[in-house]
From TrEMBL:
Keywords: Membrane, Signal, Transmembrane, Transmembrane helix
GO cellular component annotations of the record: membrane
InterPro entries reported in the protein's UniProt record: PLXDC (IPR031152)
Protein origin, superkingdom: Eukaryota
Gene source species: Zosterops hypoxanthus
Location of this chain's protein in the cell: Membrane
Membrane-protein topology: Single-pass type I membrane protein
Protein name per Swiss-Prot or TrEMBL: PLDX1 protein
UniProt similarity note: Belongs to the plexin family.
Length: 113
């Protein structure tokens, strides 16, 4: 849509795994993409969680097909996702196509919610 807001990445995403990843931790960590016209693939390869590098590296990808099909693939998930802390960054997997509607705040003139 036309609305860009500070909560955009929290409300609109395609995430095979969203967490506090730090691709700069290791020279072997990469985030790569490929678009061949029928599928767009993003791969997070050997990425580590910020401050939890001892947990091991994660490798996973998202493939968006021109047909509308979305496929998440997981190669290395060294710990159960439920054990990843969400204190520094939300931990999510999936899709969200939320939207934001600006309504005047009845109790504060000139403000929106």
């Amino acid at each position: 849509g036309d609305v860009i807001h500070r909560m955009l990445t929290a409300t609109q995403y395609i995430a095979p795994l969203m967490a506090n990843f730090n691709p700069s931790y290791s020279p072997n960590s990469t985030v790569q993409y490929l678009d061949n016209g029928t599928v767009f693939v993003v791969q997070w390869d050997q990425v580590y969680l910020q401050g939890k590098e001892d947990m091991g590296s994660f490798t996973f990808q998202a493939a968006l097909h021109s047909s509308g099909r979305i496929v998440f693939g997981y190669k290395e998930i060294p710990v159960p996702v439920l054990q990843i802390s969400a204190s520094q960054h939300p931990v999510k997997a999936g899709l969200s196509d939320a939207f934001m509607v600006l309504n005047p705040a009845p109790d504060v003139p000139g403000e929106s919610r």
